[in-house]
Amino acid sequence: MSQFYFLAHEYLDDLISALKTQGFEVKAPIVDDQAIVYDDIEKAAELPWGYVDEQKPAHYHVKKTNENKAFAWSLPVQSVKPMLFKEKEALWQVKRDDSGKLTFEQALNKQKYAVLGVRPCDLRAIEIQDRVFIENAYQDVRYKARREAMFIIAANCTSCHSNCFCISLGDSPYADKGFEWAMTEINDGFVVESGSDKGRALIEQLQLNPATGAQTYEAEQRVKAVYAMQEKSIPPLTTVEKALFANLDHPQWDDVAKRCLSCGSCTQSCPTCFCHTEKEEPDLEGQISTHLREWDSCFGLDHSYTHGELYREEPKHRYRQWLTHKFSTWREQFRTKGCVGCGRCITWCPVSIDVTDEINIICQKKQNKQEKQEKKA
Fold it and tell me: E strands along the chain, which residues?
């Protein structure tokens, strides 16, 4: 049975200081340019105290309230992914010295992050990315080094926005693994649960007292309340997987293609998408060539370019590829689903395409077809 501890709001600075003395660069949500984003912090006053976010299809807005809470908001604009899998980075350089000899220099990771306030959906997204970059036949040494150096403090959900649908995926607003600490914010502080030896050591270092029964009960009820808040849902994943493959020529693919801009905003905001491209970038003098890796999107035309041919030239084929991979073939490839129900793809789609609507329409058509066949029988 887990032991719960209590951290008062006024001791958050002690937590941040303890992490920094261990050599961590502390990342946490802040309010910047009317958005809640991850950034470096030095003190607890920089957290988004009293701020809440409103998210709907193609709509995002934050506002200040009088509530004295650091984590009253539901979800940051971006996930933890850029800290582990960078949008753009140099993998190596080839240099020519004065004698004309070429030398090879590999770029190494030296950053060590402690991330405060990771929501459960983003925690599960890290687990999915681990499957892609570490637990696969191919191991990405840079991702692995960053992942092993990361100290994660999860923040259980006590609210959600209108685009969230994690519960219908079989997930929960409660962090159950993959963290050093998991915190639930209540009126005067946080109920804390440790999830690793490093987490337990930090509790001892800060000399936290056990949480009272009233505090743990309040924390539990705040998380449970989120189950009634989520409005969006999709059918069970086994149903979705079968329906998508059985309806590759469904008219809904044409319908969504008329609306989709192929801008890739959904893939850029997604915490699990991992498509990338690599290229050489030589300097003008021909002395240095840098090998770069940067994010790519399956909505881009070049992504399917192979041997002089585009295999997904039509927008409907690109959207179908993204949706069927995320909710169907991902499981076969990585033994897990590819979506965590964070709803970012809905929030940041400029034309309000809602992935839950698209899935429900396709699944409903298949269900109606099955019903007709059963009636005939």
Answer: 4-8, 25-31, 36-40, 51-56, 59-64, 88-96, 102-106, 113-118, 151-155, 181-186, 189-194, 209-210, 276-282, 288-295, 305-306, 309-310
Mean pLDDT, the chain, as a whole number?
90
DSSP-derived 3-state class of residue 87: coil
- Write out pLDDT tens, residues 154-176: 999 999 999 999 999 999 999 99
The answer for residues whose C-beta is within 8 angstroms of residue 324's C-beta and 6 or more apart is 244, 245, 248
Q: Could you read off the pLDDT of 318-348 as tens digits, one per residue?
A: 999 899 999 988 888 888 899 999 999 999 9
Q: How far apart are CA 337 and CA 329, in angstroms?
A: 8
CA 211 and chain centroid, separation: 30
Q: What is the pLDDT of residue 371?
A: 46
How many angstroms separate the CA atoms of 49 and 71, rounded?
7
Q: What is the rounded (10 degree) CA torsion for 310, 311, 317, 322?
A: -100
Q: How far apart are CA 8 and CA 351, in angstroms?
A: 43
Enumerate residues 6+ apart whose C-beta is below 8 A from 180. 151, 152, 153, 194, 195, 196, 198, 199, 202
Residues 6+ apart with CB under 8 A from 59: 347
* pLDDT at position 370: 47
